[in-house]
Amino acid sequence: MTDQSLLGDLPKTTPVVPHSDYVQPTLSHGLRIWWALFWRTTLIDAFAFTGPTLAFHLALASYWSYSFNYGAALAMMYFVVRKKFRHFHIRLVSVADRTQVLEPTFWRVLRIWWTFTWRSVVYRIILSFAMNVPMAFVTGAVAVIYPPLGPAFAIFAGLAVDAGVGLFTIYSSILDEEFGDFCVTLAPNSTPELLPTTSPSPAPGL
What we know:
This protein has 206 residues and is α+β, with helices and mostly antiparallel strands. It has one domain. The chain is built from five helices and four strands. It has helices at residues 4-7, 27-55, 62-82, 106-145, 149-174, and strands at residues 88-94, 101-102, 178-179, 182-188.
């Protein structure tokens, strides 16, 4: 039996959307979605947590940092799911009937965020193990050639790994994937509004 507390409210249908009203996800779409999520989450974390912590020399446990970062990511995921990008937007549709558009409730966004979070962590661990030796070699070589650049290169390499993992997770595990009663799809912003059909009025005198 499906737990409705995890899925949110019952599906709310909107006017029927034609099957042609669909955008095939590409790496470009995944990159735009990841970037919109990444820079907002990083900015909030820097201004609201990391910056004040360093400025006031606060020594907080590491779980506080993770909790704040994941909380900010959840809030930004809720924003990104509802955001209109330049040419497309994210749309949640019913698994039972792909012509029914569903409301992006908090519980549905939470499921998307949770899938993105735990899969990103798993992929990051696997990739870190696979690239540990090569990245250590390259970082050491950079530090020998130009010592001040060594720490900066290590930070850049970490960000590159996070970027690759985030993009791969969104493209492979979020877009066009099913989550309980809904599926995450993309739709063009230029969708014409469908008006209800009406029968023609009879001619006067008939």
